[in-house]
Design brief:
Layout (H helix, E strand, L loop, with lengths): L4 H18 L3 E2 L3 H8 L4 E7 L3 H14 L8 E6 L4 H9 L10 E6 L2 E6 L9 H15 L4
Parallel strand pairs: 1-3, 2-3
Antiparallel strand pairs: 2-4, 4-5
Helix pairs in contact: 1-3, 2-4, 3-5
Length: 145
């Protein structure tokens, strides 16, 4: 059996992108887009997407569900680790004090990191516990919509 690995991975990547965009997140694919969006006034939730199982089974479902809440960030954006490498690297520069982690979530206000939910808080946990962590951060830092 001959399988084209790149074709297989492209299907997985496209599905992962579609899921997070359908949840209301805007993809940032270049460092310039990251700079423009993450430095805006207000709160921004960044979902660092990936193709791993905990991204597909926990982080993306949590990202989609968490934003259906009374308080939520002004902007919802995503960068894709391992795919949009320069955009992801630029976003991670803003996550001071935290090692690279994917999947993960970063909540920023006016371009400053407020809190993160890192991979170790996602992998091995159920989606609703991640939703609870995100919504707790929304309660603390975001305005009611």
């Amino acid at each position: 059996m001959n399988m084209d690995f790149n074709l297989f991975m492209n299907d997985i990547v496209q599905q992962a992108r579609k899921e997070i965009v359908a949840a209301g997140y805007t993809e940032l694919t270049s460092p310039e887009e990251v700079d423009e969006v993450l430095n805006k006034k207000g709160t921004t939730l960044v979902m660092v997407n990936s193709v791993c199982g905990c991204a597909g089974g926990i982080a993306r479902p949590a990202a989609a569900h968490a934003v259906h809440y009374d308080k939520r960030p002004d902007q919802l954006v995503t960068v894709f680790a391992g795919q949009d490498k320069d955009a992801t690297a630029r976003a991670r520069e803003m996550f001071t004090g935290h090692p690279p982690s994917s999947p993960s979530f970063a909540l920023l206000k006016d371009g400053k990191l407020l809190t993160m939910v890192e991979r170790h808080e996602i992998e091995g946990h159920d989606p609703m516990s991640v939703v609870a962590k995100l919504q707790s951060a929304f309660d603390e830092y975001c305005e009611e919509v």
